[in-house]
Specification:
There is one protein chain. The chain has 393 residues and is an alpha/beta fold. The strands form six sheets. Strands 10-7-13-12-14-15 form a six-stranded mixed beta sheet. It folds into two domains: 124 residues, Arc Repressor Mutant, subunit A, CATH 1.10.10.10; 217 residues, 3-Layer(aba) Sandwich (Dna Topoisomerase Vi A Subunit, Chain: A, domain 2), CATH 3.40.1360.10.
């Protein structure tokens, strides 16, 4: 066990700020090390104490961007600053207990050789410890704390996030020992993306598409799927139906790795939430900063430019909601977004998409900033300029 302790995150690898993909036995060994460290501090003959849990800080102050040496993909990474979960602090005593409860449940799940969805884990913990887990958010944060403590991926813990994603178009999926799925002959709902990353990692992918188009809205995805856009424009359409889940990000990353010359465009709302979604696909998120590099892709924003807004009637705009303003403030304070603003703004001008980005990030500061309504977006799409330049230009 001493060897495990020396080789684990509690020893030599504290220099590394990334989450490893580990076998169940290794994850269970790391949990055992955490327990031994806790008991050792508690049983100290000189100064017994309840040890704190040292977690990598998941805050904007502790994050930045790193670039890949082998590609033009950048991703969020977390530096070496730590935060602590302590039983002795009133404001995070419950969070301290939640970490141990989640580790206990994961230890049991891994021992049984199973995987559970995050929602299923919530119900298990709600039944077992209702005092500490009253909502899904408590479980989600505790899982991220465990990832930060043990330095292993969520999937390595035996936990799957529920997937909302779907894809359709010029893509054939072939899982070993299963029939292949031709995504070009599916209905408008497309192929549902499984939340099991192990299954997604084993898929054989083949495609004759020229583009990958990621859509924020499921309604737009289904509209384009019904129109069989991919028969006119050889492409793969993919959506997470809102904010991207891990499984959708994972399969998009796999597509980018399998077809490195296939450009990826994101069709998102012209508002702060749309930019946040784009950045999650492109760079990852701070909350999952230890894993972000595993899912980051070179995604470009497909849509309008600020100069194009004069073509849109005032009736097509809506006032931003308080939640949008909150997201805008968060984006403006983000160090990595300020660093990467020029690359975020890169991408083709496409008339009629109904979505877009003003040049630069100044539009986020505009109190009068508004978003384009979806109905108007569809109308604009229907009357798109036939002289629209090729997206590859």
């Amino acid at each position: 066990m001493a060897d495990v302790a020396a080789a684990s995150l509690f020893g030599a690898d504290r220099r590394l700020c990334s989450a490893d993909i580990l076998a169940p036995a290794e994850v269970r060994a790391r949990i055992e090390v955490a327990v031994l460290n806790f008991l050792s501090a508690l049983a100290s003959p000189t100064s017994p104490a309840i040890s704190v849990l040292p977690l990598i800080s998941r805050t904007s102050a502790n994050c930045s961007l790193r670039s890949s040496l082998l590609s033009d993909v950048s991703s969020v990474y977390l530096s070496y600053a730590f935060c602590k979960r302590s039983l002795m602090r009133e404001n995070n005593a419950k969070a301290f207990v939640r970490v141990w409860k989640v580790m206990e449940m994961c230890y049991k799940i891994l021992g049984e050789g199973k995987l559970v969805h995050q929602r299923e884990l919530f119900y298990k913990l709600l039944s077992d410890s209702p005092k500490y887990f009253s909502c899904q958010r408590h479980v989600n944060r505790a899982i991220q704390d465990v990832v930060s403590l043990l330095r292993c991926t969520r999937q390595s813990l035996g936990v799957m996030a529920s997937s909302r994603g779907a894809l359709i178009g010029r893509l054939v999926l072939h899982e070993p020992d299963e029939e292949q799925i031709d995504c070009s002959i599916l209905g408008a709902s497309g192929h549902a993306i499984t939340g099991d990353l192990n299954v997604l990692s084993k898929l054989n992918l083949s495609s004759d598409a020229r583009y990958i188009i990621v859509m924020e809205k499921d309604a737009i995805f289904q509209r384009l799927a019904e129109d069989r856009l991919y028969n006119q424009l050889p492409c793969i359409l993919i959506t997470a139906k809102g904010y991207p889940d891990i499984a959708t990000r994972f399969i998009l990353h796999r597509l980018s790795q399998t077809f490195p010359n296939m450009p990826i465009f994101a069709l998102v709302d012209w508002n702060p939430a749309g930019l946040a979604i784009l950045c999650t696909y492109k760079y990852g998120s701070i909350s999952m900063g230890l894993e972000s590099y595993r899912y980051a892709c070179n995604v470009k924003w497909l849509g309008l430019r600020g100069d194009d807004l004069q073509l849109i009637p005032e009736s097509a705009f809506q006032e931003l909601k308080p939640r949008d303003s909150q997201i805008a403030k968060s984006l403006l304070s983000s160090k990595f977004l300020q660093i990467s603003a020029p690359s975020v703004c890169q991408g083709p001008r496409v008339y009629g998409s109904g979505y877009g980005l003003c040049t630069g990030l100044g539009w986020l500061q505009d109190k009068e900033c508004k978003q384009i309504t979806e109905d108007e977006a569809i109308q604009i799409a229907g009357s798109a300029d036939s002289s629209c330049p090729d997206p590859s230009s």
